[in-house]
Amino acid sequence: MTKVLFDYNEGKVSVLFPFNMEVINIIKTLDIRTFDWNKKIWYVGLTEVETLKERLEINKHIVNFSISYTQAFLTDKPEVMIWTPIHHRIKMDYPYLFSYQIEDVAKLLTRNEYLVAHEMGTGKTVIALTYLKEISKSNPSFKGLIIVPVSLIRTWLDENEKFTKLPIQVIRGTKKQREEQWKVDSPFYITNYETVRGLKEHSNWDIIIADEVSRIKNNFSKTHQAMSKVPAKKRIGLSGNPIENTVKDLYSIVNWIEPTILPKFSKFRELFLVEEFISLPDGREFRKLTGYKNLPLLKKMVAPVFMRREKKEVIKDLPELFRQTITVDLNSEEKWLYNEYLNEAEELLEEGHSSIGVGVKIREMLSGLEAKIEECVNICKETNGKIIVFGEYHQGLNKLQAKLFSEGIKNEIISGEVPMEQREKILDYFRNSDLKVLILQTKVGGYGLNLQEASTVCFLNRPWTIAAEDQAISRSHRTGQKSNVIVYYLISDTDFENRVNEILEEKKMVTDAVVMNDILKKRKGQTTKV
What we know:
The protein is an alpha/beta fold. The chain is 42% helix and 21% strand.
């Protein structure tokens, strides 16, 4: 009979006991467990505690919990956080922070890994920059790397200039330019995900902060693998929506931040995914995701490295957000083309082929419908303030621009074809002139931009994911917005776009069940359909 103590420190659950081979063998039966050879301590996953406790007690061992573990998991948390001297010092040193941001900086100081999953528009960039400034104060040799989508480099530099004024060296350009930039001695560097594969020679990092960390949501992508190979003492991920498609996105992100939090993917799949095997005519099989289970357990597992705030929770004076769906009809030519595409997709499926390519063609065609363009132009005519229009395809964007020009309405487009330097000039022009309409391709304009000057948002087509849609809306509906924001969805009266809407709402339910702070109080079910 051995006394075993569960302890909690620096975000990890440790198992403390005098040497006993039976206890060690019981720990080895767990899916999530590691042994620190330097400290001679076993660590287990948070969700393994109940299982381990039960197995130890069956074998007559005595189990106790430390004060720190009890305070973290076995007692109710106060609804109002009690500030410590650290909170008050942060408030004095950084007067630009809101109260919730002070609490978040203080929380980040308590451990080396975190996923900051605050809703878009709540000031994650300012929180991260302040955290960098705070942790570098006592260490003159501190080295930090910030990795962001290329379109956000300017945003980070602007926020830094406005608030923290940290010395940050930009790594961007040709290979030769980047080599010269790396030679600059700086405590902080900022670069984009596309250059992350060349970071091996610059790998002595005290911290890596990855903004829009959903860029590594695929555990098997080259970017994720490259990021995982770059060593750092601390890893912080920022993402307004860590579940863009499925909970596998969250698995990949958390696995980069702290690999010991979640089990191996095979066990993760068994615990949380509902799948069925689909057989193809050629004999191949694949797994089809049909739902989820045990989402409250997943929320508990990621809790040690996860923080989430919503705009309505922290920004009390944020103007309201209104949404309106406008349904439009297809003209006779568009109906004929739409039906032709459906026939093509049906033939491909009957032959055992994928119809994804046809689906893309249908979305592109529907984004540029004559009635959508007309309706969008009418919205622009009737709106007094500035307007942002989102769409995914050049066909619809270019049609809209031409029609707006013909009506005498000033507008500019930012798409993937526009060079980065030109994009920044267009954004400045939109913010500081009488330019009324900014047309943005969702994949390049939907992330990280601050466009509170606009209070009307219009979608020619909804993005494939709720995450991308929320990101786009939050370009306008965010801290600093002084007017109510209205969002228009232009939807065709077709089975295709109606089904896209249904899928998006179903995905939103899954995201809510894992990341929203109060959702578990409202939903008691254990299985969620996809």
